[in-house]
Amino acid sequence: MPKRKNTFSSWRRGLAQRAVHAAWSWVQRTGSVTAEHPAGFRFGAMGTGTRLAFPLGTVFGEPWIHVGAHCIIGEQVTLTAGLMPDLDLGPEPILRLGDGVVLGRGSHVIADTTVTIGSDCYFGPYVYITSTNHSYDDPHEPIGRQWPRMEPVEIGPGCWIGTGAVILPGARIGRNVVVAAGAVVRGTVPDHAVVAGAPARVVRRWTPDGGWQPPLRTPAPVPIPKDATPEQLRALSALDEEETARPAALDAEQAARLARLEPEG
């Protein structure tokens, strides 16, 4: 027997859901870290317009972390400077993020020695960047007890790092580099390259003389004109929706005719 729908219970449930979502939105806004937020004062530097989304990941060594302006740090992102909290790391910053950096949800940036990320770099979710790696020189000692190796990491401006990529100690990534999802990067990557695989290898590169080699398989997208108004963009969006809906309507009409075995026309 189907249960009777209790209108009053449904109304209460909907009200409770709205209250929970409103409360969680307030918690996210209040818990996020900005340059004006008290937690932002702990950082060595934090530019205007930057926000660390709540809930935060593990964050320590803030006095040695410098974050540029207009950065977006997603939820559960780990930012650490030093091997552990409450160490004196000297006068210079250890972890530097340039202006306009976007770190996707669940990413980790572990800076036991210097890690530098250039401006306008975009990282997908769950990217792992570390300047430290375990050593295993002594075959008789547990690996976790052996002193780790540390090498600086540098990522040039304008890069795109795909989901789940791993950037290992000593990596030097050039300007406007694409790192494919799941790639494991070590060593030097030249400017204007696309790397993929584990370990990552260059699969495409741009040079002034030869352009992209191998050539791109799709045409470049047409950018939005700088002088486009919001009204024009909304009108263009409406046209796109009409073009998308029109074939769907025709397909539905054709399916109905086939179902009735009626000839077209």
TrEMBL record:
InterPro entries assigned: Hexapep, Hexapep_transf_CS, Hexapeptide_acetyltransf, Trimer_LpxA-like_sf
Gene3D superfamilies cross-referenced by the UniProt entry: Hexapeptide repeat proteins (2.160.10.10)
SUPFAM superfamilies per UniProt: Trimeric LpxA-like enzymes
Protein family according to the UniProt entry: Belongs to the transferase hexapeptide repeat family.
Keyword NADP: no
MF (Gene Ontology): acyltransferase activity
Location of region: Disordered: 209-231
Protein name: Acyltransferase
Keywords: Acyltransferase, Repeat, Transferase
